[in-house]
Amino acid sequence: MMLTELTIAGAQGGLRRREFSATELVGAHVAAIERLNGRLNAFITVTSDLALDAARRADAILAGGEDAPALTGIPLGIKDLFCTDGVRTTAASRMLEAFVPPYESTVTANLLADGAVFVGKTNLDEFAMGSANITSAFGSVENPWKRAGDEETVLVPGGSSGGSAAAVAARLAMGATGTDTGGSIRQPASYCGIAGIKPTYGRCSRWGTIAFASSLDQAGPMARTVEDCAILLQSMAGFDVRDSTSVDIAVPDYRAACGRSLKGMKVGIPAEYRVAGMPAEVEAAWEQGIAWLRDAGCEIVEVSLPYTKYGLATYYIVAPAECSSNLARYDGVRFGRRVPGESLDALYEATRREGFGAEVRRRILMGTYVLSAGYYDAYYLRAQKVRNLIRKDFENAFRTVDVLLTPTAPSPAFAQGEKMDDPVQMYLNDVFTVPASMAGVPAMSVPAGLSASGLPLGLQVIGRSFDEESVFAAASALERAAGFTHRPAVRAEVV
Amino acid sequence: MSLDPATVRRIARLARIGIDESDLPALQRELNGILGWIEQLNEVDIDGVEPMVGTGHAALRMREDVVTDGDARDAVLSNAPDAAGPYYTVPKVVE
C-alpha cells in the first residue's frame, strides 16, 4: 500500500483497523519530504524528529482503543504563518528568520488536541503577500505539476499558501493549513490540483496567526479531497475568546454535509465573472461545472454582482492599509531581526529596510500613503465604502441563490519569471477570489479538470456567511462528477 | 494623483523604512502604477454608503476586568534581539 496516496478519511480507518501504524504513515511522508523538499522547497522547516516522536505517541493512543481523537497520527503541513510553540515561525521573512514563538496558535492547538502530527512548516509568500510564492525569503516553491511534454519549465504553485499546496499535491503531507486574505488558499489549490476552503471570516480564530490584513485574514484547510478539507476544518474551526472577531456559533458536522443531496439547491452564475480575455479552457471548465451541478439536481440561476470589477482595486487599498498598520510591530526591539542604528529612528529604518523584501516594503508604503493625512478619505475611506457595496452584491445574490459557482483563477499555473515585471499584472491572478474575501463569505476551490497543457483548473464555490455546509455539498458534487484522479509529475511515489 | 520623489521619501519616512536615492525611481514607478490602477474607484458612486470596517458578525464582547495572563517575562523576552537582563534595549533617546 502506498501510504502517501491515502486520503485522510482513508487513513483514519486504516490506523484504527491497525492496517498500518502512525509511525509508518508519518515515516512515509517524512521520507518523501527528505527526498523531494530539496527540489520543491515546499517546507521552510522540516520537523521530522518531532513528527516521528508524535507518531509513536499516536500509536500508543491508537493501541489504547476506540476513543483516539479524529486526527490521531495524521501528518500535516503547517503554513509558516501559524505560531508553533518552540518551532521556528518565519512568515517567510528575513525579519522573523530566527523567531521561535513561545506559544501555539489556536488553530494549530486545535489540530494538536485532535491528535494531528506536524511534519513541518510550509513555505509561503513573505507575510502571505503574493500570488506565486516567489516573494519568500527562503526561496520560491516549485509546483509539482508540469506542462504536458515539458519537464523543464518550473511553474509557480500559486500563493501565498504555495508551500502548503505543493506539499499536499506532491504527497509530502496528507493535508495542510493555509491562510487566505484575498485568495491565498483557493488560488494555489487551483494551481496545484487540490481542494482548499477559506471559511467564513470569524469561523477560525486568528489568534497566534501572524497578521497581514486583519479584516480579511482567515485560516482554512487544504487537502486532496473535499471530505478531507471538511475533516480538517472541523478541527480548526471554533469560537476563541482571544480573537475579538471570532464568532460564537456552533460548528456543524462538515463531513456529513459533503454527502448532502443537491436537489433543489439554487446555484448562481455571476455574469460579471465572465471577464474579457478569459481563456476558453477556463470558460469551458466553468460551463462543465454548471452542467455537473444541473445534473446533480441544482437549479442554475444567472445573477449579477455589479461591483465585482472593483474588488481588486478595493483590495489593494484595504489590504496594504491594514498591512502597514500590522507590520509596524517589526521594530527591531522586541522580537525579530535588528539592524543597529545610531538613533531609534535609524534602527527602525535600517531594520525594516533589511528585514522586509521588496513586495512587503511596497505594500507597507502603499498602505502608509492611503492612510496618510490628506489622502485617507480619497483612498481608504472610499475603498471601505466600495467594499460595503461589494458585500451587498453578495447579500443580494444570496437572497435568491444558495451558492455561487465561478472559476477560481483566470488561468492555470504560470511559469516562474512570467508576470513578474508589473505588480498590477501579478495582482490580477486574484480577480475571482478577492470579492468573496472582501465580503467575508466562505469559498472553496475544487479541481475540475486539466487545461490543454495538462495543468489543473479549479472551480470556486462561494456560500453564505457561516454556511460552509452548502459549499462542501456543492464542492463534493463537483468533485464526484469531475472524478479528478490526475496526479502531478513530481510526487512521493515517483522515484 | 501621482507621487513625486519627495512624496515617496515622505511615505518611507512615515513607514520607517530606509530607502536609498537609487531606490526612488523604481518605487515611484511601481507605486504610481498601482495608484493609477486604483483610480478606477473614483467612478463608483459612494454617496450615502457606509464604510465597511469589518464583516460585523462578531459584536465586541465585555469581560471581567481581571488579569488573564502574565508571569511570562522570560518567554516574552526570549526573542528579543538585544535584551539586557530583564530589559529590551534601544539606542539612547534622551540626552
From TrEMBL, chain A:
It comes from the Bacteria. Keywords: ATP-binding, Ligase, Nucleotide-binding, Protein biosynthesis, Transferase. The keyword Protein biosynthesis applies. The keyword Transmembrane helix does not apply. One of its GO terms (biological process) is translation. PROSITE patterns: AMIDASES. Residues 24-471 form the Amidase domain. Its EC number is 6.3.5.7. It holds the Pfam family Amidase. One of its GO terms (molecular function) is transferase activity. Gene3D superfamilies: Amidase signature (AS) domain. Belongs to the amidase family. GatA subfamily. Heterotrimer of A, B and C subunits. Allows the formation of correctly charged Gln-tRNA(Gln) through the transamidation of misacylated Glu-tRNA(Gln) in organisms which lack glutaminyl-tRNA synthetase. The reaction takes place in the presence of glutamine and ATP through an activated gamma-phospho-Glu-tRNA(Gln). This is Glutamyl-tRNA(Gln) amidotransferase subunit A. It comes from Gluconacetobacter liquefaciens.
UniProtKB/TrEMBL annotation, chain B:
It comes from the Bacteria. It is an enzyme of class 6 (ligase). GO terms for molecular function: ATP binding; glutaminyl-tRNA synthase (glutamine-hydrolyzing) activity; transferase activity. Allows the formation of correctly charged Asn-tRNA(Asn) or Gln-tRNA(Gln) through the transamidation of misacylated Asp-tRNA(Asn) or Glu-tRNA(Gln) in organisms which lack either or both of asparaginyl-tRNA or glutaminyl-tRNA synthetases. The reaction takes place in the presence of glutamine and ATP through an activated phospho-Asp-tRNA(Asn) or phospho-Glu-tRNA(Gln). This is Aspartyl/glutamyl-tRNA(Asn/Gln) amidotransferase subunit C. The gene is gatC. Heterotrimer of A, B and C subunits. Pfam families: GatC. One of its GO terms (biological process) is translation. Its EC number is 6.3.5.-. Keywords: ATP-binding, Ligase, Nucleotide-binding, Protein biosynthesis, Transferase. NCBIfam families: gatC (TIGR00135). It catalyses: L-glutamyl-tRNA(Gln) + L-glutamine + ATP + H2O = L-glutaminyl-tRNA(Gln) + L-glutamate + ADP + phosphate + H(+); L-aspartyl-tRNA(Asn) + L-glutamine + ATP + H2O = L-asparaginyl-tRNA(Asn) + L-glutamate + ADP + phosphate + 2 H(+). Belongs to the GatC family.
